[in-house]
């Protein structure tokens, strides 16, 4: 799959002076609920009204969507508000029904993207459509799998393509519902700058009070838009209540977000500079997180040494680490002087942690 500016045509045709915004409830619950939310969003910067019709759930017995009935509700949204509408499709039958009901945009969820078999089935059903199709990243952080899914859709003849970054599952406990792994999204952009990239802060955070923070980071990283779950009564939503915001909150988020606009050469310079700085911020946060994990391991070593009455400083082990890191650093363009200074500081912090544990 090669870069192709035609993949951005559907987004460029919207002629927006702001990032794309896709918003609406996680799940369509009732016709009244869908229409009420749509009317509250129709005069805002929202370009597409979203609602989940079929809801793939982790475990059976949970609310799994209203099904094809909800497509008629989305048709009514179009009639009454003039908004474009979109929904998730998870198999060929969903695609057929969505196209029959003239849904304007389709997206493929993370649980579908993870399976090449499902993606090929959906690609075959989408063959030749001119509807925009957005592909969410798979649940696991596998860039090749994500790109493979996009490639299957592209090879079916779909020209209007985009990607949705919704974060990745992890066993580690973090502040996110799905860890963003920003570096992977940055790599995606670098490989395929012509594919519009939309951020889904709702699924990344799982918490409405973090939506603004993640949305801003996405825009600083030059994402093309946002998909934000919105409900007039989020506390009582039938699915994902904690991550939905009210229409009023969504409007305020859009007002508060700092948008890096294109313009003169000076503005272009500042936009590129801000994007690169945002990428550095991502890496800096990863460094701090990794150093924290390293010190947790050091604490464990300190506790073990205390039980065996072993000295904190082990010179042989320390010299082995330094030698290995100098070689690794050279392979990444880092000088020996820098590696020695950095790891001496890290080593000293590790010693401080162990001594604190050994000395009680």
TrEMBL record:
Coiled coil regions in record: none
Signal peptide location: none
Cited SMART domains: CM_2
GO MF annotation terms: chorismate mutase activity; transferase activity
Xref: InterPro entries: Aldolase_TIM, Chorismate_II_sf, Class-I_DAHP_synthase, CM_dom_sf, CM_II_prokaryot, DAHP1/KDSA
BP GO annotations: chorismate metabolic process
S-adenosyl-L-methionine among keywords: no
Domain of life: Bacteria
Chain ranges of the Chorismate mutase domain: 267-358
UniProt keyword terms in alphabetical order: Transferase
SUPFAM superfamilies for the chain: Aldolase, Chorismate mutase II
Enzyme Commission numbers on file: 5.4.99.5
Protein name: chorismate mutase
Native source organism of the sequence: Algibacter mikhailovii
């Amino acid at each position: 799959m090669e870069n192709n500016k035609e993949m951005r045509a559907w987004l460029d045709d919207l002629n927006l002076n702001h990032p794309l915004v896709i918003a609406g409830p996680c799940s369509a619950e009732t016709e009244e609920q869908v229409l009420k939310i749509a009317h509250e969003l129709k005069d805002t910067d929202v370009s597409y009204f979203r609602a989940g019709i079929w809801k793939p759930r982790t475990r059976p017995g949970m609310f799994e969507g209203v099904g094809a009935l909800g497509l008629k509700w989305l048709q009514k949204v179009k009639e009454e508000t003039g908004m474009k509408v979109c929904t998730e499709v998870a198999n060929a039958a969903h695609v057929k029904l969505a196209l029959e009901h003239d849904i304007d945009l389709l997206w493929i969820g993370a649980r579908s993207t993870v399976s090449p078999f499902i993606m090929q089935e959906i690609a075959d059903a989408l063959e030749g459509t001119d509807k925009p199709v957005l592909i969410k990243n798979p649940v696991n952080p596998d860039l090749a799998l994500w790109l493979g899914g996009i490639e299957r859709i592209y090879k079916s003849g779909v020209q209007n393509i985009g990607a949705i970054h919704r974060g990745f599952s992890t066993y580690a406990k973090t502040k996110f519902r799905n860890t963003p792994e920003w570096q992977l999204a940055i790599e995606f952009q670098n490989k395929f700058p012509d594919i519009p990239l939309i951020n889904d802060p709702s699924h990344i955070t799982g918490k409405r009070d973090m939506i603004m923070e993640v949305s801003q980071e996405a825009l600083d990283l030059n994402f093309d838009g946002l998909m934000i779950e919105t409900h007039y009564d989020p506390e009582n939503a039938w699915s994902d209540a904690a991550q939905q915001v009210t229409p009023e909150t969504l409007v305020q988020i859009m007002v508060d977000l700092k948008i890096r606009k294109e313009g003169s050469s000076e503005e272009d310079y500042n936009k590129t500079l801000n994007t690169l700085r945002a990428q550095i911020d991502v890496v800096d946060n990863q460094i701090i997180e990794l150093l924290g994990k390293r010190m947790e391991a050091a604490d464990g070593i300190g506790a073990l040494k205390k039980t065996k009455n072993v000295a904190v400083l082990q010179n042989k082990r320390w010299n082995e680490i330094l030698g290995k890191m100098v070689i690794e650093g050279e392979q990444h363009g880092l000088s020996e002087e820098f590696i020695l200074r950095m790891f001496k500081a890290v080593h000293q912090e590790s010693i401080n942690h162990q001594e604190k544990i050994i000395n009680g």
